[in-house]
Amino acid sequence: MTCEIMVGLQWGDEGKGKVIDCLSEKADYIARFQGGNNAGHTVICGGTKTILHLIPSGILQNHTHCMLGNGVVIDPSVLTEEIRKLEKSGIEVTSRLLISPLAHLILPWHREIDSFIEEQKSNAIGTTKRGIGCAYADKKARVGIRMGDIFDRQRLKKLLEESLWHAGFFLKNNDKKRYEVDEVLAWIEKNTASYRHRIQNIIPILHRIASDKKKLLLCEGAQGTLLDIDFGTYPYVTSSNTTAGAAGIGLGLAPQHFRKVTGIAKAYTTRVGEGIFPTEDTTEDGKRLAEKGQEYGATTGRPRRCGWLDLVSLRFAAQINGVTSLVITKLDVLKGFEKIRICTGYYLNDQVCTEYPVQTSLLEKVKPSYIEMDGWEEDISSIQSFEELPMAARRYLRFIEENLQVPISMVSVGPGRHQIITL
After folding, report:
1. Is position 182 annotated as part of the catalytic site?
2. Which of 169, 221, 245, 264 could tie 7 with a disulfide, CB 3.0–4.6 Å?
3. Which of 13, 149, 281, 310 is flagged as catalytic?
């Protein structure tokens, strides 16, 4: 199996960064296939916390090579700063990073428009105001700028004029900053100077890797399934497809190359921002989960809403991603709860349904149907094998497996790189 897809199964923040860092120990290449710097992948190694927004999490392993695929949107200034910080800390990045020339740029006015629209909405989506959605919108409107465009200055200038003309209707009508094309051109040149030589066609490289059974490619997704632009809790979603199906599109790989999909989920559920959250717990238990799990957004610092594990949405996520194995993170956070609740169905129109109702109008009406399982008091943060876990923790994990009909391959029992159990 040379190509493995890594996806989040909830509303993001499942701990993908740590899992990808761990699996990267045996991988040769890690390629990001969608999203932008609205992602925040956290890895803790040797007590040092590293938060990555664009560069794949595997960069922290010294032997790996990383790629940003055509499905990613890139803020040149953010990528420059991220590379600078990593290299300042002793991690070589530039020589190990390749960028697709088909990846789109986030331009300065994208951030400004994103922020203004979010602030003016009566029902805010809860975006990170990084310009991600606006960059994707320009891509769909065919007025976007791609990484490969930066090598022809005259052509780039014409493309910027067209893109700015398109944005100008909004900027002018809302008394926003008047951008000059030469100013933005200089900004792009400045912020791509250190890595422009790493922009190259990665498709032939990816296909060589996919044909080499001795190489392992990890395809890294950002955000989570329930934030997918099509399958998520619309309109409170991100602006890209976050599911496994997007990996081929975002990297230029055909479906037959993918044989394994690893789905990552917390042992409970969290969500940042607005939107439907059936199992949210606003009582002291929810606050306790937030405190124990240190639930704050890695990108924005916003507190995350917390609640119990939702097997209805998790089963749906596993189905549409074709998940072949599960990784459960933050199991250690559940320590100390006398009873742990798990949502196994939804009350809808006075009936209990176990199928996920994809329409927002129905999801807004559901109420969770819970079962309770015994908790545990033991500290599991240093445990290295499944057999060492308390019986209640083992039963909890087996219950998840049985309900989803997907085997658990890894369990995280703490924030550190090595606090992980491989089954």
Report:
1. no
2. 221
3. 13
